[in-house]
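hey all, quick one before standup. I had two proteins in the batch that finished overnight and I want to keep them in one place so we stop losing track of which output belongs to which input. First protein below, input sequence then structure tokens straight from the run.
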Amino acid sequence: MTHVTPPPAPPRLAIVAADTPEALAAQARLVARWGQHPPETADAIVALGGDGFLLETLHRCVERGRPIFGMNCGSVGFLLNDFHEEDLPWRVAAARTVILHPLRMRATTTDGAVHEALGINEVSLLRQTRQTAKLRITIDGIERMSELICDGAIVSTPAGSTAYNLSAHGPIIPLSAGILALTPISAFRPRRWRGALLPQKATIVFDILEVPKRPVSAVADSTEVRNVVRVEIAEDQEVSLTLLFDPGKTLEERILKEQFEP
């Protein structure tokens, strides 16, 4: 007698959507077609929306550890797969994984409180008023710049290097490069300083100078802390986030391709 191995069961999916008509309508169709499981018991989470919603979903799922397969129902969709309703469970089962380690921001405010947040794309420092910010930059305990006068600064992961970092004329970083980008925003002094590439394990500290006159906020993705006096940033290797991509369209491939786009 010939024994036939049954095909593996399709993964159990939790389908979540951004609060937009397009994403909510897509969610209703997919749930009707493929079913719905709670995120706590699902094998994977399907996120429908844009890049911002995918980041929100990643932040909400840090503790759950579930892989996330994003499908674009937004505008750019750099971190998402193309939207198709057909064969969704099998697309998820065949997807390639990308493991991301976010940045951990520890921001101390003028009242002495310490606020922590994760930045999957980047951590940004931004001036709060018409006055430029004045920042002192220390890398791994060594002062590298005594005073940077600017609108702000960005510390970007490779995954976030094509987002705000690129808009501020920072470099695109391949996922496997093992480095972070430190990019100034509208640097006034030193006028021609374009930033630095830092080891992935570096600890970056910004001390804000002239705090009462030049208040600064710190933002880890969408979490903002205002009136900071000191911001410490380092990659958190203890936190692993899993993204799923269709074969041939992985995040690594997209980042490499972006460097050759006109």
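OK second protein, same deal, sequence then tokens:
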Amino acid sequence: MKLVSKKWVAALGVVSVVAFSTQIAQAAEVALKAFAIKAKLVAGTNEVKLDKDPVTINGSLYVPVKAIGDALGQKVTWDNSSKTLTIKEYPFVANKYTWTTAPDLGSGLKEGGFSGLVHVPGDPDNVFYSLADRGPNGQITIDKSVNRTFPVQDYVPRFYKIQLDGDQIKVLETNKILLPVGAAGVVSKNRNTTGLSNVSTDEKSYDNTGKTLLPLDPDGLDLEGITYSPSDDTFWMSDEYRPSLIQIKRDGTLIGRYVPTGDKEKLKGAQTPIFDTLPAIYSKRIANRGFEGVTISPDGKFLYASIQSPMAVPDKATGEASRNLRILKMDLATKQIVGEYVYAAEDAKTFVNVAQKDVVISDLQALSTDVLLVDERDKNEGSAAQIKRVYKIDLSHATNILNQDLSSNLEGTSLDQLKEKKIITAAKSLVLDLTKLDYPFEKFEGLTVVNKNTIAITNDNDFGVGEYDANGVLKINDKQTQVWVIEVKDLW
């Protein structure tokens, strides 16, 4: 079942076979003479390696199907039990997994909100880590003010070790994010962190009614991305609030929080060790649009973090109209920032019903020291979605703008002006377009790589939080938390 007729090969129109010599063999199964052909298979200008020689039977040329699939960028599989040969064009969805057993959080809500995903090298291919953000939250209008509500006030930010089994997401471990041993949070009064806002200039936190203001917590976290450091067996996470980067132990204990220069003073009373070593300008992130993606290079030397949206530089209106997103590079040996690069988001004007402010980066995945995958998406879902894409970029060819004058006015600089200044943005090549795979969710927020042909993604279902009705009662929806495993063609 590894052979294909020359008629099918000819119909493909992209593959040629050149024969050099023949050798007679006996095809005992059908009592026909088969002639093995010393040949080469050429796709375009590239020769395809053959694990077996082509043969002729009754005047027809047969070529191994796997070689044809490789030549066309398609995957060939053989199911011996059903005697079925399947040829699939990359990329394709290999499996989908759903979290159907999420524990209750109270108020009709369940755990969920997967905001990031990482596969740790050495773990089985079906085992991953994910995390949830600040907890269930909604928006209610009170006296013409749109207030952010926290229906589960005692929620503790957490991360999960999960296993994909059958069609299910199974949680192997749940680890809450904890303050250092001996510390007690100003709000929790124990080691638990909260998802509450840090300072008065953040988006304000209210109770479920939207009327009672909740206390500020200098240790509060709104976590969005997760990655693993092989050099010291720790996890790093990205936070939207400050924005900040946090390092934790495997049991969830906080090691340190890295914030923009000048923000340490704002976090008085924090029990987490604070290091204000990030560029000060990052404190000008638009509210609820801080760090989203985070990844560490496979050699463990560098961490990359991406801002979700262009920042309010010099003001919010400029940021919301800009296409210029920032990616930071940290040297993990020194914990110092050593690079800043420009990533140009897609132009919203070339799509239907897409606002530029809603074209965002939601995750990163490092393939090598400077080559990353970028999760870029819009705010639409289902058939209305325009941008749910994975791009590959190589930052070794991009301009490092760290500490340059341009960094202080990046959002107000057009792409044409960047070219005039000889600033090279991160070149993008498309790896995956989820809109072509009928992806149903808005928040494609987690991205990781298992091997050179396998990507895993996950969505943030916002804990099933819906809208408030006219009586101020929070509605719960049935949005699922899912992980999709997708086969792609040779990431490296």
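Flagging for whoever picks this up: Residues 65-72 form the longest helix (8 residues). Confidence is low (pLDDT under 50) at residues 1-13, 24-28.
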